[in-house]
Amino acid sequence: MLESQNVMSPLSDIRVLGVTVYLAGPFTLMNLARLGAEAIKIERPGTGDPTRSNGPFASSSGYSDTQVDSSYLSTRFLKRSQGLKSVTLNLKSDRGRKIFLELAEKSDVIVENLSPGAMKRLGLSYDDLKSVNPAIVYASISGYGQTGKHSGRKAHDPQIQGMSGIMDVNGAEDGPPTRVGFYIGDLVTPVFACYSILAALRERDRTGNGQYLDVSMMDTLASLMFMENLEEAILNDEPIRQGNDSRSGPMGLYHARDGDITITVASDEQWERLSVALGAPYLINHPKFQTFLDRGKNVLEARHVIQELISKYTKSDAIEILEANNVPCGLVRTVNEVIEDNHFWERGTFREMKSAAFDVPVPGIASGFPVSFSGGSLPENRGAPMLGMDNSEVYSKVISMSQTDLEGLKSDGII
To answer: For the segment 274-292, what is each residue's pLDDT rounded down to a tens digit?
Structure first.
């Protein structure tokens, strides 16, 4: 991590309201909070985000299969809510809607990931909020977008992976379509949402006007997938799924005597270095492997030749000789090996899990922000919030509610 004594909070003057559930919306809020924004999660009174009830639960004393009390937070909620504030508000009530509009009038950004049309039915669409705050930036995250023939379909990450085509790309050539092993649609889409929000805020600085952002998980994955030349593979009647190999040449997974490694050969120069490293300089000018296109056309044979050479080495010996010849390579590690690698802890990629209910960490690994800034470290946060724990602070600070008002709203089921 870059050394710095300063703490920088670049979004400290930005207030974000989030009507968010499950993962894509909360992770968007969490990333803005990491950069210093005041990220306020609006939750249903009594129950909150559905993931709050999904065990196991964590406290300072360990894990529990049951939620012993309100301080025991779902491990899934903990991971997705670091640094957020939680307020409860019944948006289906007229009073709750009015309070939300008052909060929005004093905010900069709205993030929501309900089903398309849900916020409009609540009377809280972009047009409704723009009428009280023309400068508001309003981001709607959904599976398929707010328009188009698929927009009305229900979707979570598995459906998006299937509908985007990414499952068709992933998996072995002779195997079935395969889901990526984590919620890639739910996690990558918020990155696009966040920098689009920042771009909209920058545009607002110039024009004074906010705008509406329609963020689609399916569009996100499809756009990323076609950074690969898939249309050429289809045109040439080549298999789409490549498993651990690459259609671009003999890149991918190789088996050493005691484990697996990966090798990348993305240029003629890298092929030359690989050939020399493996004691096979005759491969450099071999007519079947001489150019990038040659290796692509004869990829099975090229992989076979490389595999025979790699199989003579242990994985550590293979990595040593490849790195000595500047060939991109790496070990294939288990998740547990990654957890135990100090690299991630020293750089802040992995962090202790925090819960705002406790002054000490709770079990689990929190994902840190994977970028180091030379101007300073990002602000620390208190962890994930208990349901409604910030009602008093937010409602009194933002819209000047008294304690008497809050007590009345609570007894009426509004907060």
So the answer is: 999 999 999 999 999 999 9
Pick from 47, 78, 73: which is nearest to 64 by CA?
A: 73
Q: pLDDT tens across 65-82, in order?
A: 999 999 999 999 999 999
Helix, strand, coil percent content, the chain, rounded in steps of 5: 40, 15, 45
Q: In the beta sheet, which residues pair with residue 249?
A: 246
48 contacts 70 by C-beta, under 8 angstroms:
no
* 111 contacts 404 by C-beta, under 8 angstroms: no
Instruction: Collapse the DSSP code of 40 into the 3-class scheme (helix H, G, I; strand E, B; otherwise coil) and give the result.
Output: strand
pLDDT tens column, 25-60: 999 999 999 999 999 999 999 999 999 999 999 999
Six token digits for residue 397: 């600070």
The SS3 call for residue 20 is: coil
Which strand (E) or helix (H) includes residue 254? strand 249-256
Instruction: Report long-range pairs for 117-126 (Cβ below 8 Å, ≥24 apart).
Output: 117/152, 119/19, 122/91, 122/92, 122/97, 123/97, 124/19, 124/91, 124/97, 124/100, 126/212
- The string over 298-310, giving b where at least 16 C-beta atoms fall within 10 Å of a residue's C-beta and e elsewhere, is bbeebbebbeebb
How many Å apart are CA 284 and CA 368, to the nearest integer?
Answer: 43
Cα diameter, the chain: 85
Q: Which two tokens stand for residue 209?
A: 């006007």
